[in-house]
Every structure is written in C-alpha cells, then in structure tokens.
Records
---
Amino acid sequence: MLVSSKELLDDALKNHYAVGAFNVENMEMVLAVLAAAEETNSPVIMQTTPGTLKYAGVDFYFANIKAAAQRTKIPVVCHLDHGNSFELAIQAFHAGYTSIMIDGSKLPFEENIALTRSIVDVCHAGDIPVEAELGRVGGKEDDLDNTKSKNPFTDPQEAAEFVEKTGCDFLAVAVGTAHGVYKGVPQINFEVLTKIHELVKIPLVLHGTSGVPEDQVIKCINLGMCKVNYATDLRIAYTHGVKEYIKGSPDGFDPKKYGAFGMDEVKNYVVQKMNLLKN
C-alpha cells in the first residue's frame, strides 16, 4: 500500500530504528526492492533522483512504484530524492509522490530556508511531508556534484534554526558520508551528529550510505537517523547480475533473463540492509 513517509519515520524515531530508502532506476529494481520488503516484512521507501527522472519522467516512475505498492500490504513510500528545483518538487507532488525532498543545500542559508519553506507550504496543504538538506553531503551522483564542498559538516545550531523556520518534516545532514563510490572507508563525525540530535527533534536522514560500515550505520540510527539512503550499491548490484548472465550466456538476447539476474542481486542486497536497519 502506498503511504506517506511521515507516519513511518515518526514511528522509527520513537522506536529507534530506521527505514531503508532505495533508489530505483527501472521496473526491475522496483520489483526487486518490493520482493525484499515482503521477504523481511519491512516498510520501504522507493525514491528517484532528478537524473533518473530525466530518463523516463515523473509520471512513469510514479506509476511503477504505485503499481508495486498496490500489490502488497507492506507500506511503500514514493519519494523524490534530491529535488533540485521548486518546479520539479511540485511536479512530483502533483504526480502523486507521497514524500518530497527539496535540496537547497548549495544555496546560502537564508535562501535554502526560503526555498524549503515554499515547498513545505505547498506540500503540507496536501498532507505530503518534506525532507530538506542542510550542509553538503560530499561526492557525485547523477547531476549532484558536491566534490568541491568547502564545509563538509552541518552546523548543529543552524540545523535547529533551519528546522524551526522551514517546518520541514525530516532533515538530511552532512556528517561525513558522500554520494557515489568511496575511495576509502568513510568516517562519520559522531560528535557533530550527537549535537544535531540533541538540538533537532525531527527524524534525521543519512545520505550516501552505500559503503558505510555497518557498525557506523547502527550508531547513526541510535543518534536519530531514521531514513537511510542507498543508491550506488543498488546500481552496482544490478549491473553485476546483468554481467554475470552475459558472461554465462554471451549469445543471450532476452532482456527478461538478464533482468532477472540483476533483480536477484538487488533483492539480496536490499534484504541484507533491511535486516540491518531493524537492529
């Protein structure tokens, strides 16, 4: 069933667990994530970035996720990840997305507040929650490039002020993770995260979790991270499955067959992460 992210994340904050948010790039990945959610009996957030939406459109991806949600009793959220403009956020809102992120983190503080507040005003009128971002989560993924970010961490005092002024429902914070493939082992700044958790009373969001050691993820959950995003590792898993099929069947040409291999890899990965997030 298709639900809002607010009811899920508010419960996660209250009961000290996290909900997995998985970026889906095609129908096969939607089906794989759904299968993993049903196997683990876990609520799930399926999300798409602006780069993904350029590929097939907001309406097409929403239709895929809605169809998946209608097949199951598991709570499924359709979330816009890193919405990069007022226009795209409102387009996703009107298409039926049940959770919207507006990412104004590249803007000056007051401009980020103004943009986020404008999205909150529209979405809350339709009972749709809003995720915002403060600070620069590093790395590069799709059209998002924060590789040259000068300040890698969210300021805790600014985070508290930002939440108060915007009315956002969830806040993505920069505490040492990065989008894309890590060149080394990431190290979360738990001192910064602890201060943010003390001052900000809404659910926090961890971006760039692919490649983060599991013990660090669990510690983040204990410090208020209620939505944990995975994207890069799902792409890697799907591509690995397709390559394995082609390696074993170089003359194969049926997309359903190599798609099934990709789906199996994605499902196995998501099952592992969903079980982790319950701890």
Note: The mean pLDDT is 92.
---
Amino acid sequence: MRDFSQTKRVVIKIGTNTLACANGIDTDYIRDIARQIGELRKSGIQVLLISSGAIGMGASELGLDAKPEDTSLKQACAAIGQPLLMHEYKKAFDALSITIAQVLLTRWVLNNRDMYLNLRSSIESLLHLGCIPIINENDCVSTDEITAAFGDNDTLSALVASKIDADLLVILSDIDSLYDKDPRKFPDAKPLTCVKEITQSIEDAAGDSGSKLATGGMRTKIEAAKIAANAGCRIVLAHGREENVLSKILSGESIGTIFMPQRKLNAKLRWILNTPVSGTIEIDDGAFKALKDNKSLLPIGIKSVSGLFEAGSVVALGNRAKAITNLSSAELTTLAGKHSSEIRNILGKHRRDVVAVPEDIIFLNE
C-alpha cells in the first residue's frame, strides 16, 4: 500500500498556506523543499512541482493583508507574484545545480487535444533533459481560469499527474491528514491514514478553505484525489512542514493520508474523462447496452442532441458516459434515429458511419 520502491515519476503540489510566512513567502522552506526534491532526483525519480503562492506573493508585495476578491486585482497580483516566486525557486535549485522550467497552464490548454499533446511532449522533453518543471495556473490571462478552473492548484496537480502518467501525487498542505470530520470544529476528529474509496461520507468530512490567502480547501483535495485515482495514481496528503516529508513518504512511512487508485485508464480515456463536455447526446437503452458490449455508437440509437459542438468534441452520452464524437451537433440532429447506411448518402461517401468508436468512449461511475 505504501511501497513506493517502483515509483519513477512524482508530482508534488505545495499550497499557499504551506509556503507562506509572516513576511510573505518562506524562502528557507523553498530551499528545504528544493533540497528534498534534489534527493529524490538522485534516487532516479522524476519530479514535477505544482506551486501555489503567486497571487499571495503578489498581494504581499502590494501590502495587501488578505487575498483580493476583485478578479482584475487577482490577475495583477498573479502577474506581480509569479516572477518573484520563480526567482526564489531558481535560487534554491541553482544552489543544487538543477535547472528549472516554468510552465503556465490554463484549462483550455488541457481541454484542447492538440494543445494537450504538445504540452505532454514538452514536459516529457524537460524531464528527459533532467529539468524540474514548475507548473502553475496562468492566472493573469483569463477570468474563467482564475475564478473556478482548477481550485488552488489541487485539481491542476491531479490533472497533470493523470495526464503525464505519474506514479504518485503528493499534496503538501497545512493540515497533516484527512480527518473523519473537521478538526477545527470537532476536537475528537480522527485522522484517516488510508482512503480506499472516496465515499459520500468522505466528501462530507471535507472542510472549507481556512486561509485569507488560499483558495483551496479539503474539498478540492478530495476532488483532486478522484481525478488522480482514475489514472491509477496514488495520492498522499501530508503536512508540508513535516521534517523531510518527501523522503519519509517515499520510504513508506505512514504519515498523512494515502488515497488508493481506482480503475487504471489509458491516457486518451483520462483526457476524455477530465475534459468538460460541449454538449449531450441522449441514447436509448439498446445503444447503451451495445456500448457496454464494446460496440460503436450508431445514429440509430440517438434520441436527441443538445448543445452546439463540432466533430472531435467531447460530449456526454446521457449521464452514463462521455465520448469523442465523429459528427457535429448539426449532423447528429439530422441523422438521429437513422440507419448507418444512410449517413454517407446524406453527408458524403468519405464520412464515417459511426458516431463514436469504443476506444473513444468512457463510462462514468465505474
């Protein structure tokens, strides 16, 4: 369960509260984390670092005593804080002769298949070169991204771990474990050392954000664990200020909470699962049964289509599955209920006669 001897690639996420000190960002802590990451690299482990703190660092630089609520001010703080944060990481890793690389992401990059594949290739190249990619959300370019896209980098860290085939995701927080209830409200709350399945009771135990500078709380960490678990990736949540926390985790010590993986999905299915849908195709029970038998989705099984989308988009198949569609919403509306043999007569002989093939379909809640 905590045997990480075969672990080759680790994603480490550090939260704002863990990085923060009374005067802003704790540079001593950054140096210590760099040292720990350097030790992991010496043992042959590839490391990607997801670092929060840009908005909080920008806010401190401006003399703000709390995280700004106004979106444009958040963006300004991110723009100010990001180079300051990276400067501290560069100094820390330079002392270890380790090269770092900055990677700023938006949800759109991860949702666009071509952009995602380019990103994946770039990260693989950086790791091959021995670099430490330091990844953050590109807060200053999109109001959609800054308000709800990733959630204090917890979701971002899980998506990155999923999409680059990490063996382990470590989330370093200002709390030492997931508890059976909120320890800030209930003195008798007990830590959970292992979560084999994220049930409703586990979700109910998650608290809210507890910091004036952070946006994430335990709930976002639970959501992150769900994403990583579907990639077959183990997740450890631990206190970031535990001495030598990374070496302790990788050596198998029982600190923090470990979330065990669920089903193991290939990279393409994980991308489909974690990409928001552009529309919905309602299908009949016969079509769904055919999908469960590893058959393609055919137009004859379509009852209705909602939303506007192009061929190649990710769509919902009712509330039971997601898929990449070979046909647009306009085409599917025309073809719904028709036999496959009619598709090429209507759309042209070079068009595919199926809506989605089995390798482009992922079932939900399994």
Note: The first strand starts at residue 9 and ends at 14.
---
Amino acid sequence: MIWRVVISLCAAVALSGVAPALAAERSWMARWSDEEIAALSEAVSEAWTHGLDPTVYPDPQALRDLPFGARRDDIARAVWFAYAEDLAFGVVDPRALDPDWTAPIHDVDLLTAYAEARESVGIYDSLEALAPAHPDYQALRAELIRRMALVDAPILVPPGEALSRGDEGPRVDALRARLVQLGLLPRSVRTGAPFDARMESAVMRFQTRHNLAADGQAGASTLAELNAGDARRINQIRANLERWRWLPAELGARHIRVNIADYRLEAWEDGVVARTHQTMIGQRYSRTPVFSEDMSIIEINPYWLTPGGLGARWVRTFRTNPAYALSQGYRLVDLDTGRRTDPYQADWANRRYRVIQVPGPNNAMGRVKFLFPNVHNVYIHDTPHRELFANAQRDDSSGCVRVENPEELAVWILSAEGWSPQAVIDAFDSGETRRVRLRHEVPVHILYFTAVSDALGRVRFVHDVYDRDDRLVAALADPPPYPPEPSVLEASEGEAAPSP
C-alpha cells in the first residue's frame, strides 16, 4: 500500500530535532501506546464523515496491527499530522482554484496541538477539535452521514419539455412520485392524474428551497435539481465541508456574513443571527469574489464615483444627450482640476472627464453604502432597483453586493457606535451626505456555500450559481498545486480581461 503520509513522515522526522524546544520531549519522542494507536485508528476510520477520502490514509486495522516500536511511532506521528492538516486547513488550497480568493487563512499551530494530544487532550479528541466547530459544519457532517446510509435511489423524471399545470402522462407521474419521495406531496394521488394546482404549489416550494425561479413549472433547471441523486448531494456536502475548513475558527463576535450562492446576508452577534437580508450578487461575467475585510465606513446618501467601464458609457451620454445624463443625477468632473464642468461647455478635444452621480432616487448606490476597503473594490450597498429582490435568482450586479432594507442594516451597525434608530433614520431623511467612520469595525465575510443549514440544523441545497462545486470536488481527489504550474500562469496571463 502506498500511503500519502510519506511526505508528512519526512517532515515530522526533519522537525524532530527542534520539536523539544516547542513541545515536551515526551510528546515528541515517547513511544505510542496501544491505546493511542487505537484512538488514532478510530479517528482515521471516521475521515469519510468529514467528507475526506479515507483511501489517502492508512487502513485503520493496518495501523492497529503495526508492531510496537520506533517504526510504528514514526508512522503514527506522520498519520496524525497528515490527518490533522486536512482537518485544520482543508485538502485544497483555495487560491489554487480561485486567484481572487483573499479570505483569511485558518491558522493553527499543529506542533502545539500534537504536544497537547500526547500530553493531555488525547489523540482522538485532538483531531476532532481541529475540525471546524461551527454548527453549520456539524449539520453538514450529520447530513453526509445520513446520506451515506440512505438506500432509496431518487425517482428520476425523464428529460423533455417543461412540465406545467394541465400536463399529464408518464413524465407527470414520475414528477409526482419524486415530489412524494421528497415529502412535498401526499401519497394518495392516482396514477395518470394531471398536473394540478397542488402539484404546482409543491414544485414552487421545491424551487424556492433551491433558489430557483418559483414559477411552478418543471423546466430544465428544476428537473436537474429534482433528479440530483445522493451521489451528487454527497459531493456537494463534501465541497461545502471543505469550504468551512478554509475559514478561521473565529469570524468575529459581531460580524456580517454574505453567502453569495444563497443571495443572503446575515448579521451575527454573540453566536446567533441578529438579522438577515436578501442580496443581489455579481453577474457571471463580474462574479462577486470570496474575501474578508473589516467594515470601517458607512456613507449615507452617498455620491457615486463611476468606475472606468461604467463611467465611459455616461461620458458618451454627456457628449450626445447631456440633458438626460443631468436628469439622472450625473455630473461631469474635470480630471485635471477635480471641478464640475458644464457639459455644454466641455472641451472634449483637449480635456479628460469623469462622471459622478449625486445623491438622489436614481443613485446607483441607493441611499447608503457600506465600505470595507479591499483589492476587489467590492462593497455592500443599496440599489434604486429594489423591485429586483422579488426575483429568485439575483445575479444582477456588476460585482458588488446589493442589500435589501439597508436602512435596517445601518441601524444594527450604528447601534454599536451609540446611534439610536431615530438618529439613523434622521440622517437618511436629511438628504445630506454623511460619512461615518466606525470606531468598532465590523468584520465582513463574503463566502460561497451551496449547502446551508437552517435554524433547526436541517440542510438546504441551493443553486450553484457560479458552477464552482464540480471543480472543487475534482480538486479534492487531485489537489492542484499552489502557486499554479508555470504553464497555467502563462495561460491565464495571456487571456483577455472580461468586458465590464
């Protein structure tokens, strides 16, 4: 048997000279007892419950059968470090999959954890403690165990035209049977019955649960989710368990968490969700990145400094139809002087201009923007198009996160600054631009999870809007190197940047 732990074993042996300075000599050099080997074997036997591939670790029984001695100690130590590293940091380096990934890396001192495992905590408990303790991770792990134990295969709905109310036939019967299997319809329905209002309601509930357009019709996207068997869901859970392992253990006592795939913002306080908001995210050509930064400024009734791509459109509008641009709240600014310019008097041949938008009902930032400086230039803000929050799929923005009911989010954030709710409302209603620098900065985590748990710990699967799951599942089986191979870097540098 070829074990992946050979590399970790070499690292462990290389470190043995300095380990006594970092941990007790007994912890590093003492013989592994039979009880410790049994505990290590038990821990490794549960690797699959964390979504990890058990074949990359030694067979648990083979570990137990190793004879007492130095060779067993070296192997056990290497196995502990290999498994501990996967639990603590994940199998895949997220930066190898997404160059824009800038969330903080989970930091754990494994040498200290190993010393504690040998001295006090115990082998099994030390490894379990390295896995994320967050309730969402534990809910996903429990769901994985349940799915692995299921024996009923999903009832498949044959492909074809979208099914809707009034349709009938074998495909409708299969759809009904699948909805019954999922607990969305009662069983007492005769074969051959048409697609009725009750069935339409069941389809809509399924679509809502999976962040699909809740139109009550079983089209291609809905059928793909309905036909997803346990193998696909198991891989989806494994991918999301890995995403949790990438994150730091502490996200902040008071923080904001945006799940891109779920179009959802959660404000957390002391371990519980204080409030939730629906969001819009970047379109596929301008995907919202995964990262973490601290919110430091709230700007009420903001100006909008248009970026290069979007601003160029309005510069052209000022040249061809300045009256319309002015009516939408846009103003022309001379780049050399920083002063506003009358578009009717602009020197288009010799001067350079930028477009800003003044506060008002048409402002692209809406009534407020929440700033947390980052390399992506992505923020959370309001929108003048609040009607779009009624859509099930909301990948509509140019990359930033648009938030529903932003005034209420501002009230929650500014309460820690000593603002009363009425003071926040008055600031909005004044119409004046107010830039508030936060004394108590709020960590903001922009994340991507396609399997999430609800308040009762049940797992809900959402649409993989950016198609990231399959690539991560493949990487779990064959982790890509980081930094990427030179050929990969050269290829990416040669690609044209996406148009705005």
Note: Residues 304-358 form one domain.
---
Amino acid sequence: MLPNANTQAVSLHNLVKRFGDFTAVDRVTLDVGRGEIFGFLGPNGAGKSTTIRILCGLLAPTSGSAKVAGFDVATQSEEIKKRIGYMSQKFSLYDDLSVKENIEFFAGVYGVSPGTFPARLDFVLKMANLEDKVETLTRLLSGGWKQRLALGCAILHEPAILFLDEPTSGVDPIARRSFWELIYQLSETGHTIFVTTHYMDEAEYCHRIALMYGGRTIAVGSPDQLKTSLGDEHLLNVETSDLLKSLALLAGHPGILDVAVFGGGLHVKVADPGSGIAEIRNVLGQAKVQIRTLEQITPSMEDVFVSLIEREEKAAA
C-alpha cells in the first residue's frame, strides 16, 4: 500500500508545454501521493525532463495547471523551490571542491542555517556513506560516489519532495542498485520521490509509473498493474539453436501476434499460450530448429512499454 497515497504532493491537470510548433508535454494529468516513489518512464525526448523542470519552477507551462506541495507552478515557483530537492543527471557538482566543500556550498544555496549545518552534514555523510571521503576532491570520485554526493546535496534542506531527473544515467548497475536503496530509505521517512528514467528495469522499484511517449502519458499504474494491462496477449520466451532463423519463421505466422529478439532468445506474443506453444513447436520442428527453452513468462516492463507504444502507433495510423 502506498504511504499517504490520499494526500497529494504533486498534481497535474492537462499540462501542456510547447516550444514554437513543437509540443514537448501534451495534456498530462496525474497525481502523486506523499511518500510515494513515482516514476516517469520513457525514451529520450518523451517529455519527462521537461515536465520535471515545470514542476520544479524552472519552466513555465504553456497551458494547464500543476501544483507541487500545494503551490501553483505558474504563480508560486519561488515557494516551490524552497520545498523541493532537485538532482539532474549531470549531478551539478563542482569537481575542484572536496566532498565537504560541495556540501557546504549547497547548504548556502539552500539556506541551511549555520546552527543546523553540522547535523545536516553528518546526516548526508552517513546516508551517502561518504564519511571516509569527506576531504576527497570530487573529481576523484567514481560516478557512483558522485551520484550519492549529489543526492546528499539535494536533500540538505530536508525537502518534502525530491525530483530526480535521470539520476542513474552513466553509472554502473551496482551503483544504480545501491542508489535505489537510498531512495527507498528516503521514501520510508516520508519523502516523496519523483524520478525520471529510461532504464526499464528501474521501473520495478517505483510504487507507480507513468509511461511517457511523444509528450503524453500512455499508461499510469503500479508495475504489476501495467504488466496485466496487455489484456488477452500472453508472452512466451523462446530460445533455439538458430535465433535469426527462428525469428524469420515465426514473424507473421498465423497465431503469432508479435515476435522480437530479447537477449539471447525471442519474446513471442500469442493470444492463447497452449495453442501458441504447439504452433511454435510445429513450425520450428519442421524447419529442424532445436528448441532449448519454450515457456510462458510474465512480461517485463520493456515488453509492456513496447506493446503500449505499438498500440499507440496503430491507433494513430
């Protein structure tokens, strides 16, 4: 169950942002509850970062409305900035400053009082596990440590709402997983986390997700809800002795809704798992292709996203 899900931390209604003739954000409507980890998932150019910048008071919307912590983004952006933390994929750190000096700088930016600073410094260093790197120059840190430092700087002033814009871009998978552990800790203490990502696996960490495509939200829900949104479509994982030949044989075959390469095998969408498995065995068997794995699986977020985009494109056509 989502913490404080009935109390809205962020609310958007028909939000639109245009740059000339280009519509970057197209009538987005959604609510994010307090303490929720909410993810914006989508490819580059989907409108995720533009929406985040509007919510942070960095861009004015063209039309529609949005509120953050109860304040209007169009008329009360300065009030919003006092109550949020923001972390971008560039980390916004100063490489020629030490870890402590970066924290001191951002404490000044966020108006952390001198009396409060020692406790906040101690909290950030412990939270980010940077206690033994306090005097290290930031440029000497790995991407994962810079990421932790940037998160710590973003929460120095104890914001209720934290916006993370592609925060794991460019860091290794181990650092990404460790970073998400920190996000969970913040959520458990009541922080609302609004995060954008193009990594499909990261969507699994969110309480809810909005899938964005072409500036619009094409689906909103929990990971489990979105995985069951494919309706009558079922997914099979197929691994064979000849991947490309199997792909060519199954693509467009009656009873096969879709087939795509996924890792070292194929993900095959069928209307009925039983008859679909029988048909695949028959088609590949006649072609003397050895089947190593043939099983029904739960769709990944990547499968869900691709299917929803295909639906959008078919509807548009």
Note: Residues 234-298 form a domain with the Alpha-Beta Plaits fold (CATH 3.30.70.2470).
